[in-house]
């Protein structure tokens, strides 16, 4: 299939705006929903991203290795180049992800070579995922980049058939591969998917497609008596699985086979020569747990992968292009710079920021109301994800008790002086009577309480003394102004108010998003 790649746009994006792809074959089939921090940690731990970052910091970032991205739901998602992008993100903050010794190695290289960690990264923008697939497949199926494991390769091809809706001929055309080379991964993936599902359901055993030994599975079903035992064949037109047994009997037999296959060394030993294979199948056929008299009265059983197949035409229409900037300069029609990105890895918060950033400068009240909403919800998300509400309740109760004790002491001194009381008055008993020392749960805290806690306990390590003092001072004033804008009909808002509000809150949002590390 011919694709005019020369028509693809290129654009220089800051690293923070680029989203690592959860659908990357290295990650997708683990069954986990990871946020950006967790994806980066996974790539560091499993895909040698630290080693790549070290190489880049020593030798530089080679030209001609531009990532390929696709714009999905207003996010710049890296389709090809996740390891390189992750390595560059790692170089921006090594201590966040690495041990002290490894982080120091990268930091020394950065200092020694004056490596530009804040560089922008030139990317090619694919119209959609489908059109990027030929490049991705070619790069990772060869030797130029780190080769995918067999399971990753098979899943990539299967995804084009089942999720993108392509037929086998289309995939052959797109990937420039023979029909046999496309049918092979489709067959293996279809049977693997059935086995993976039944293992997880019946035995609570989760297998990772990247680590599964596909060679053993292919050896098994290539043996005709094995297919007869499972009651399966493959459609040679599309590689789909044909199941001739009732679903429950098929799953029972497949479960037994997969429990053996996942012990790859044992299976390789027991399913080797022709005589070994014969004995292996005979042992399965002698198992009294299986019903060999059963037949599928309703005809063929449809495989799970076939049931999920997508429609090609609807997938082809999913094309998103880069939003072009207005010819006006950013400061002329926006309060927040178009280049500014604050990412919390939370869909609602990130969409709130996107809308806030793109509000025209004359939407004065909309900006004030949305900014206050963004402030309150980002604080709540930060405290919740960091598990800080218990500490917030503890410190807020301590502060409330301290302030209440001052009031009670003042009251006691007044009573003693006014009425010449010489006896001692127990301040704690007065506190109890007035219910000033009750402990409250602040897991649904107000904006003021959340802001006070973050201001007093979460900013010290990120700002110097002067910056911290100024930020604390302005945060209170800005918060009060936003409260009035939202709750007081008599309060008027002007453009300068909004500009000041954003200017002074921007560092707070940066600190919250950058310090939001979710432990694995």
UniProtKB/TrEMBL annotation:
Q: InterPro entries this protein is in?
A: ParB/Sulfiredoxin_sf
Q: What name has this protein been given in UniProt?
A: ParB/Sulfiredoxin domain-containing protein
Listed Basic and acidic residues bias regions: 308-317
The record's annotation in SUPFAM superfamilies points to:
ParB/Sulfiredoxin
Residue ranges for the region (Disordered) are: 291-326
